[in-house]
Amino acid sequence: MMEKKIESLKRILEESSYTVAICGSGMMEEGGYLGVKFQERAYDIEEKYGVSPEDLFSSSYFNTRPEQFFRFYKNEMLHHMPEKTESWDALAAMQNAGKLQCVITANIFSMGKKVNLQNFIELHGSVYNNKCSRCGRLYPMEYVRDSKGIPVCESCNGMIRPQITLFGEMVDSRLITQVTDEVEKADTLLLLGTAINSEVFGQYVRYFNGRKLVVIHQRDHHEDHKADLSIIEQPKNILPLLGY
Ligand SMILES: [Zn+2]
């Protein structure tokens, strides 16, 4: 059964003129990172900080209680990053073989950059991009992670802000356009570690007008039968088997 599915996935990729992959939270989960909104983890966080993750990771919290924001952000995210899994190496190999033209993610840990994906869109930004909110000076992730309390700028003492989308914030409209364009252009759309009607990506999947929609996701989802091919498994257990 699984062998057949992998054969058909390979055929789809071989016949595809433009393949786009969307990487969801399942791609972090398989690397040992559970998103802060997941029930199990959200409960622990609320116990520990006395506030829900949605509130902690919001722009209003960042603006009014930066010290608590950074305590949470550093402890739960920067000191707790997912491992890069075999999936990312497989995506890089697919790209280099000319079988993958674009990768889109809302994950903020820049896995695609670690394997040199060329057309890699980070819809919600990256923990590796940090900017002084006063003078605009840029800082590496390590500077924020290793700072005591609120990270401040060495030049002007302004507060440094990670360039990521917090809860309650609008996504950069240029990125929305870029993602929509890529999905519209796709002949094959791969949903990796995410479902067809996911909260973040559902609105983009609707623009897909190509031939084959493929879902590879560990969580069985009732909408996923709408896909041309659905594999209920972690991407890291499937993508390397393609042999690129
Ligand atoms: Zn500054």
Architecture overview:
It is a single chain. By secondary structure, the chain is α/β, with parallel strands linked by helices. It has a domain of 150 residues: Rossmann fold, CATH 3.40.50. It is 36% helix and 16% strand. The chain has eleven helices and nine strands. The strands form two sheets. It has a six-stranded parallel β-sheet, with helices on both faces. The longest helix is centred in the N-terminal third of the chain and has 14 residues. It is globular and about 55 Å long. Bound molecules: zinc ion (ZN). The site of zinc ion (ZN) has 8 residues, from loops.
List key phrases describing it.
244 residues; alpha/beta; Rossmann fold; 6-stranded parallel beta sheet; 3-stranded antiparallel beta sheet; binds zinc ion
